[in-house]
Amino acid sequence: MKTLEEYMKLPYKLEIVPDTEESGFVASYPELPGCITCGGNIADVVANAEDAKKAWLTAAIEDNIEIAEPESVDSYSGQFKLRLPKTLHKTLAEDSKKEGVSMNQYCVYLLAKNSEKEHLVLAKKQAVLV
Question: At what angle do helices 103-129 and 86-99 cross, to 10 degrees?
């Protein structure tokens, strides 16, 4: 098992969402279940998140709880094959041509845009649940 200092240096993903009920922010580390905190502004919530992470990791080490390490993007190739209807293929090809980019770039743009929208919706739902 790593030391506290080694775990603190790992690049855990920090998620910060607005707290609509308390007019501040809620922060959590998805890879550290239950590690959550809040703050009145971004600077406070980031500082509180570091403190919460340290306390969470300390408790996990003391109790010999397995600590997940951050997932690396190196385990993903960045490629996947997708089959789609010919009509959709035609639409995407035409739209990407209008935008002056490759169909690959256009599809990445659409996926990223939609993914960001979904993350915002989920973040709002989580903020309401907190």
Answer: 100
Q: What are the φ and ψ backbone dihedral angles of 27, each rounded to 5 degrees?
A: -125, 145
74 pLDDT tier (thresholds 50, 70, 90): confident
The string of pLDDT tens digits covering residues 44-71 is: 999 999 999 999 999 999 999 999 988 8
Within the chain, strands assigned E span 15-19, 24-28, 36-39
Name the 3-class secondary structure at 25: strand
Assign residue 78 a region (left: φ > 0; alpha: ψ between -120 and 50; beta: otherwise): left
What's the farthest any 2 CA atoms get from each other in the chain?
Answer: 59
